[in-house]
Amino acid sequence: MKTFDNAILITGGAGFIGSHVVRLFVNKYPDTLIINLDKLTYAGNLENLTDIEDKKNYLFVKGDIMDEKLVISLFEQHPVTGVIHLAAESHVDRSITNPLEFIGTNVIGTVTLLNACRDHWKNNFKGKCFYQISTDEVYGSLGPEGYFTEDTPYDPQSPYSASKAGADHFVRAYGNTYNLPFLITNCSNNYGPNQFPEKLIPLTINNILHNRLIPVYGKGENIRDWLYVVDHARAIDLVYHKGDKGETYNIGGNNEWKNINLVYQLCDITDKLLGRAAGTSHKLITFVKDRAGHDLRYAIDSSKIRNTLGWMPETSFEEGLTKTIQWYLDHQDWLHHVLTGEYEKYYEQQYLKR
Ligand code: NAD
Ligand code: TYD
Questions:
Q1: What is the mean pLDDT of the chain?
Q2: Is the model's pLDDT at 123 over the cut of 80?
């Protein structure tokens, strides 16, 4: 068995963004052990990682980030010098139904990891780092003008964003109180392969495929700034290796879309890829009751990471959407596996009983 001098603990690596980060790190850093700690909730899926699961520098551990004993044991067993923390409850609509679950994983889970880093690394913080993967949603909601910068005050508006904001505050507090080296990035909406079909883009693609109505909240006028997930994974790699400790970097696609225009675009590309007549799926679009407290607009000013670290998104929106839709069309077995009875129950609760 190969032994390693260095290990990175990635949490939530079986989820959407985490799986792209794990893949990138396992392939790019063969001399570093990449430990993926994931509880495999409804959103976690080891099918996302079958291409790297046999690599010598990859170790999957099924477990909860709130399990203090387990987290400490990972630090005792492996030379962990960095944590890249993605594990989270991540869906705003679920946070509206069940906020406590979000406080558990997103706040208590984060503090459990921070304690392990502080206690295990104490006296020797050199070369160590706790990297918190956060969201632009902690900044609240924008009007039609302006952008979120790293100096925008936190103003979270949903239980999800409040729990992520709480976690970010703890990370900074551990930096200030215990000198724990940290990094935080706040990223805009991601899309791409492996995203669970409860979020707007994969839900729309799945519904088009199954001739199901496409639920658009309110008037579809809310705006999101979309980034291809592989570009986010590249940014995480860059920040982890080159970012200044104690700094925050905003990551975004500079790619704002009104939901309704995005949904039309998804219909058109999917119909084309399926060889259907143009406009076929438009009839599925249905305006439904708005999300409670629905943030109007998110838009990121990512000039800091662009200017200081030289990061840029590489995937245009049209290319990224086409790749994403094609991926879902080619992986209907993946969709079939994740759309369990639990998903149907959630779907009924969220969309059919309102
Ligand atoms: P996801 O819901 O697809 O995946 C989350 C993963 O965390 C799953 O594999 C799940 O099994 C795991 N997990 C959940 N609770 C856990 C626990 N208690 N212990 C261990 N593992 C647990 O989420 P995602 O969209 O990939 O988001 C990943 C991170 O990036 C989150 O922290 C999220 O806040 C942040 N983020 C997401 C977006 C986005 O657009 N998706 C944008 C910015 C930031
Ligand atoms: P989502 O993918 O849940 O991401 P977030 O809320 O974190 O930005 O939603 C993206 C946008 O799409 C958001 O404005 C809510 C809207 N939306 C719908 O209109 N219909 C849906 O079924 C979903 C899931 C989202």
A1: 97
A2: no
CA 39 to ligand 2 center in whole angstroms: 24
Question: Is residue 345's pLDDT more than 90?
Answer: no
Q: Tell me the ligand closest to 135's alpha carbon.
A: 1
* CA 43–ligand 1 middle distance (angstroms): 8
Please answer whether residues 7 and 30 qualify as being in contact, where contact means their C-beta atoms are separated by less than 8 angstroms. Answer: no
Domain at 200-223+256-292+316-352, CATH from 3.40.50.300, 3.90.25.10, 3.40.50.150, 3.30.420.10: 3.90.25.10
Q: Is the CB of 66 under 6 A from ligand 1?
A: yes
Residues 38, 89, 137, 225: which is the catalytic one? 137
CATH no. of 7-191+227-251: 3.40.50.720
Nearest-angstrom CA–CA distance, 235 and 238:
5
Amino acid at 260: I
Supply the angle between the helices 317-330 and 259-273 in degrees, to the nearest 10.
50
- The predicted-structure confidence for 145-191, as pLDDT tens digits, reads as follows 999 999 999 999 999 999 999 999 999 999 999 999 999 999 999 99
Ranges of each domain in the chain: 7-191+227-251, 200-223+256-292+316-352
Nearest atom of ligand 2 to the alpha carbon of 262 = 12
47 is catalytic: no
Closest CA to 16 of 222, 193, 258, 257: 193
Ligand 1 pocket mutation, candidates 90, 100, 138, 198, criterion most atoms within 8 A of CB = 90
pTM of the predicted model over 0.85: yes
Q: Which ligand is nearest to the CA of 148?
A: 1
pLDDT above 90: residue 34: yes
Question: Environment class of residue 185 by beta-carbon count within 10 Å: exposed (0-12), middle (13-18) or buried (19+)?
Answer: buried
pLDDT band at residue 354 under the 50/70/90 scheme = low
Q: Is 58 a catalytic residue?
A: no
Q: Is the CB of 21 under 6 A from ligand 1?
A: no
